[in-house]
Amino acid sequence: MLDEIDRGLIHALHLDGRATFQRIGEVLGVSTQTVSRRYARLRETAGLRVVGLADPARTGTTQWLVRLTTTPPASRQLAEILAQRTDTTWVMLTSGGTEIFLIVDAPESGTPELLLHDLPRTSVITGISAHYVLHTYLGGPTAWPGRLTVLDADQQFALAGPHPDIHAAAQRDSATAPGTRTAARRPATAEEESFLAALRSDGRAGLARLADATGWSQSTVARRISELRADGALYFDVEVDDRGLGVTTRALLWATVAPSQLDRVAKALAQHEELAFLAATTGKSNLIAEALCPDPASLHTYLTQRLGAFDAIHTLETTPVLATVKSTSQPTLAHQPARRR
Questions:
Q1: Which of the four pLDDT bands, split at 50, 70 and 90, describes residue 124?
Q2: How far apart are CA 245 and CA 308, in angstroms?
Q3: Which end of the chain has a smaller Cβ tally under 10 Å, C or N?
Q4: Is residue 48 exposed (0-12), middle (13-18) or buried (19+ Cβ within 10 Å)?
Q5: CA 154, CA 174: separation in Å to the nearest integer?
Q6: Of residues 326 and 333, which shows the higher confidence score?
Q7: Across 227-239, average pLDDT
């Protein structure tokens, strides 16, 4: 289990993934050396990484939630192959190892090659279900609330510094009715794609390293980071093994909600601390979520008591997540969760 300093560091990195160790130490009330040591230890033992990501809601990218049914002996190998692709994120083994869940990114004006050409030729796949994401209520720039419980309001304000609070903006967007966002959607340019790829590899990379990767000057790199963050096109996410936060049970929830009640139910569920992801999609299951719980009993309580209180949820399927093969940007095989996760 992570202690208060570890949790505070993770909370701080969610607020500003590029904050210096000195600045984080000042906010946490510990030395710069302590923050540096804790960061290094968490990278080694809990897979801690900061990644810079483009927000699909701002950069003209579409997302598909894909559910594959496979033969059990082939599922792990196929998941690892899918994890190596640049157009996939959150590749998970679910349902006793007979299913793979993943998110596929595609240009707004294009089609996902993985769905149209590559997967249909894979003989070990016995079923494919693809759900087009219509609106994201939780996820992306909005971090799981279970990681944001340590810093008080003053500490959060101190870390926000000159940067806009992207998480707060994302929360406001998620509370807005689908289709009513006012922020412009602008596809990333070729230069920005190279820049974003470097940040996706290491969100805390120094200006000199990013300048080498892009051919820009360090001042241009710094300016572009500020501009893209202010525009909402770039945010910094934190990858870490949530077992240290007490999570041992993780599940995907596939709900069918009455269309007239979908937005109301989703906005209410977005306030649930058990959920880390929530999106309205196409398909028979039109509301899909990910729940993180301390144990199976807690998941049972959440399903029967909190979700069970919504009459508008007509059907609900629960699939346990056995392992996360890839998270937001890179395969995570070195830090596999316990079997029940």
A1: confident
A2: 26
A3: N
A4: buried
A5: 24
A6: 326
A7: 89
User: Side-chain half-sphere of 332: how many Cα atoms within 13 Å?
Assistant: 26
**What pLDDT is recorded for position 336?**
43
Q: For residue range 106-119, what is the model confidence (pLDDT) as tens digits?
A: 877 667 777 777 78
What distances in angstroms separate CA 103 from CA 32, 87, 106, 120, 287, one per listed residue? 37, 8, 10, 17, 15
Q: How many residues does the chain have?
A: 341
Q: How far apart are CA 183 and CA 335, in angstroms?
A: 37
DSSP string for residues in 237-282: EEE--GGGGT--EEEEEEEEE-GGGHHHHHHHHTT-TTEEEEEEES
Tokens of 147: 């990681």
Contact by Cβ (8 Å): 74, 124:
yes
Give strand pairing partners of 65: 103, 131
How many CA atoms within 13 Å lie on the side-chain side of 249? 15
The two three-digit tokens of residue 140, written as one number: 């992306």
Using CA atoms, how far apart are residues 153 and 146, in angstroms rounded to an integer?
A: 16
332 token code pair: 């995570």
Amino acid at 334: A
Instruction: Report the sign of the C-alpha dihedral through residues 324, 327, 332, 333, in that order.
Output: positive
> Residue ranges of the alpha helices (H) in 29-116?
32-46, 56-59, 72-83, 113
CB 269 within 8 A of CB 275: yes
